Amino acid sequence: MAGPRGRNPGITPEILLRAYSIGLFPMAESADDPEIFWVEPELRGVLPLDGFHVSKSLAKTIRRRPFDIRFNSNFDAVIAACAEQTSGRPSTWINKTIRSLYSTLNHIGHAHSVEAWEGDRLVGGLYGVSLGSAFFGESMFSRRTDASKICLVYLVERLKQRGFTLLDTQFTTEHLKTFGAVDVPKDDYARMLEKAMESPNLSFSDG
């Protein structure tokens, strides 16, 4: 169960990174609510990088290369798509304040997107925050079958290649559990996070 830790309309990118480093992340009540509140779940979703599972059917799809997968080529478009209201997602917690903050984090090298493209059309993606040797997944969207799943596979592959040790999913869902996501008690998560924060900031982007 997530618990708010107080509202802070004056949040800055520096405060946001500090919050991640101690186990907090921000949400808004709705896209129209300008305020943000801090969340610290009693059970934290974590996707163990050494226990990541890809189904045979998804692996077969990936081998067909249905999408052009890109990293950080249009971060703002990804977060905008994640914030869209759809028939399957009538409301969203991503407000204008969050979009602005994470866009700034992207510009300073701490927020990243993985994107699925069909020609010049963005059809799926995800974004999150890197700090130390941790990656904090925030949200994903899909406009084509398996687009966001394939982005997740490419994300995990990159995190492994770059030496990351923690992939935080905030919460677990049935969708994420099929990849191996687990619920971790807050105290156990705090120890995992502390270890990841001892690392220098690892590079996610090329260049």
How many angstroms does the end-to-end distance come to? Answer: 39 Å
CATH class: Alpha Beta
- Major sheet strand order: 5-6-7-8-9-4-10
Question: What fraction of residues sit in β-strands?
Answer: 25-35%
Let me know the largest β-sheet.
7 strands, mixed
The chain-level structural class is alpha+beta
Fraction of residues in helix: 25-40%
Kindly report the name of the CATH homologous superfamily: Leucyl/phenylalanyl-tRNA-protein transferase, C-terminal domain
What is the fold named in CATH at topology level? Aminopeptidase
Question: Could you describe the 3D structure shown?
Answer:
The strands form two sheets. The protein has a seven-stranded mixed β-sheet with strand order 5-6-7-8-9-4-10, sandwiched between helices. Strands 1-3-2 form a three-stranded antiparallel β-sheet. The model is unreliable at 1-8 (pLDDT under 50). The protein has helices spanning 13-21, 56-63, 75-83, 96-107, 147-162, 174-177, 186-197; strands spanning 4-7, 25-27, 37-39, 43-46, 68-71, 111-118, 121-131, 134-142, 166-170, 182-185. The chain is α+β, with helices and mostly antiparallel strands and 207 residues long. Helix 3 packs antiparallel against helix 4 (96-107). The protein has one domain (4-197): Leucyl/phenylalanyl-tRNA-protein transferase, C-terminal domain (Aminopeptidase). A hairpin with a 2-residue loop joins strand 6 and strand 7 (121-131). Helix content is 34%, strand content 27%.
